[in-house]
Design a protein that fits this description.
This protein is of the alpha+beta class. It is 52% helix and 11% strand.
Length: 441
């Protein structure tokens, strides 16, 4: 078992930009800290297909539109600070971006795929020039900020013991070694959701700070002239203002979630509060609950508790289907989490929360993840909108009464079915998507 505070410290963190290039930058930055940074002259990063795919076309914050894992890796050489965690690149400036792009153009940064690794896996190797030359490495595995090994000239200076691998080959470590998500994966949904009973005033402040962080980037994404990718949030807000859509809270939720993901995926220099290792998960899990709370004039404590329940429910799904997957976690996991959080906020109980989660999972389980990029705002908006509708259905007592399709007799079994679809039925999806994207590039 874990406590709520342990859960929040591990699963709910500020993140600047997409977490996959963030993990790449974090690994490079940590390796560089073992060397004289000024003498580093080359970087090689080896990643899983999921990290490779998710970092190919996503904007890097503060980079004036530069995209991709390679740019993130190069920036980390100049400005990365591992102490910042997933905000590792927050000190980057435009002049650093120009240097980083030059490194990428001249082949001093290489990003390669590891054919046998799945989920979150990043190995960064940095080399220095001069006499003597040195080489340092850092490995991140299991979770985006989970550094498991650091070496200098082949000598291990830090290492977390690998306890075992699960049936899919993903690395698993104990909760005491930092893998709270693994502990969540051993618990029932009832056990997980009861962790919210431990919430104190400090937790309320932290959760509300995260909610305001995510609302701020949404408001930024709605501003005229802001960095906002496809601009879906602005477009939907215009439709609402023109009364071409009805005055419905569900539409407002979608507009805000579109806008937040628009800005984040385009590289806006604003952090979000992540959930289960993903900033877009954090947007989906938090903003719908927060906006419903505002509309219903709920107290901060009520809203914070519902947001905690949304984070817990999101992590419950992610702990089973995998940290990175072929299905879109923003829709499937965070959508289910947001639905549960809204049910609790609007007066429902655990049974209603499970009904809402089952509805979201049945509705969205086959939606693929085709990498992190500007169009992720579509998925985030869909996840948020479907979550709100599923919550309303559940509050009316509408849900699955018999197993059908992927939906099973319990929420645990349903998620296991989604996991099976993801791990076995969609085994080749990442490779196919990468081939499509690379052929276009």
């Amino acid at each position: 078992m874990v406590s709520l505070k342990e859960f929040l410290q591990s699963e709910v963190k500020p993140a600047l930009g997409c977490t996959e290039p963030g993990a790449v930058a974090l690994a490079v930055a940590r390796a560089c800290e073992e060397l004289d940074r000024a003498r580093v002259h080359s970087v090689k990063v080896v990643v899983s297909d999921s990290v490779y795919k998710n970092g190919m076309a996503v904007g890097i914050p503060g980079s004036n539109g530069a995209k991709g894992n390679a740019v993130a890796a190069a920036l980390a050489v100049f400005t990365g600070r591992s102490a910042y965690g997933l905000e590792v690149l927050k000190d980057s400036r435009p002049s650093d971006v120009a240097r980083a792009e030059e490194w990428v153009r001249t082949g001093r940064v290489k990003v390669l795929r590891h054919p046998e690794k799945s989920g979150v896996y990043v190995e960064a190797v940095v080399s220095s020039q001069g006499t003597p030359c040195h080489e340092a490495s850092c490995v991140i595995e299991g979770e985006h900020s989970n550094i498991v090994k650091v070496t200098i000239d082949g000598k291990v200076v830090f290492e977390k013991p690998l306890l075992r691998e699960d049936e899919s080959g993903d690395a698993v470590r104990s909760a005491r070694d930092g893998s709270v998500s693994e502990a969540i994966g051993t618990m029932t949904y009832s056990e997980v959701i009861r962790l919210a009973d431990q919430m104190d005033d400090e937790d309320v402040r932290f959760l509300m700070e995260g909610a305001r962080l995510n609302k701020r980037i949404a408001e930024y994404g709605l501003e005229k002239g802001s960095i906002s990718g496809l601009g879906l949030g602005k477009g939907m807000k215009t439709l609402l203002d023109q009364r071409r859509l009805g005055e419905d809270l569900g539409y407002l939720i979608k507009a805000y979630c579109y806008a937040a993901a628009d800005a984040r995926m385009a590289g806006a220099p604003l952090a979000v509060m992540s959930s289960a290792g993903s900033g877009n998960h954090g947007i989906t899990a938090v903003l719908p609950v927060y906006l419903v709370g505002e509309a219903l004039l709920k107290s901060e404590r009520e809203v914070a508790r519902a947001i905690a329940q949304s984070h817990l429910s999101t992590s419950f799904v992610k702990s089973r289907i995998g940290r990175l997957s072929s299905v879109c976690g923003c829709v499937v996991a965070a959508g289910a989490g947001a639905a549960a959080g809204m049910v609790f906020l609007m007066g429902g109980d655990e049974k209603g929360a499970i009904q809402a989660m089952q509805t979201v999972l049945a509705d969205t389980a086959g939606m693929v993840c085709d990498g992190a990029k500007e169009s992720c705002s579509l998925r985030v908006g869909v996840g948020a909108g479907e979550a709100y509708l599923a919550a309303l259905f559940a509050l009316e007592g509408m849900g699955f009464s018999t197993p059908q399709g992927l939906v099973d007799t319990s929420i645990e079994k349903t998620i296991d079915n989604v996991k099976l679809l993801n791990k076995v039925g969609m085994r080749q999806v990442d490779s196919v998507l990468i081939d499509i994207m690379e052929s276009r590039n």
